[in-house]
Design brief:
four-stranded antiparallel β-sheet; three-stranded antiparallel β-sheet; 7 strands; transmembrane helix; membrane; transmembrane; EC 3.1.3.64; phosphatidylinositol-3-phosphate phosphatase activity
Amino acid sequence: HITPEKFYVEACDDGADDVLAIDRVSTEVTLTVKKDVPPSAVTRPIYGILGTIRLVAGTYLIVITKKKKVGEIFSHAIWKATDFDILSYKKTMLHLTDIQLQDNKVFLSMLSHVLSMDGFYFSTTYDLTHTLQRLANTSPEFQEMSLLER
């Protein structure tokens, strides 16, 4: 969900009530609940957050807008991110000079080019950041941790 003040990222899991709120001015990230999302927010589906990047015009949020299932590991789906959106935290570019606007446009173009290359994979249920060998040698406590906690 997008408002002029915040980005709200809502999980689609059954029973999930938590919503990630990202303040577009302070860049502060907090957890809130679904009822705090304003009804006026523009809503659109995404499949994940790739991250943030700071360019000339300010901070941008990079989100995955399309995905393709490429396989499974132990019945865990592995996805390839195939399309992205680069969302500006700033509502306007009026604070930039013409040269800064041009530089920012070039950097956005370069970023879009990198994102269009193959190689962005993810799983919402399996840890792709560790090898199978390393996962086999971890403690039961580590394996019980959520992917976020790891």
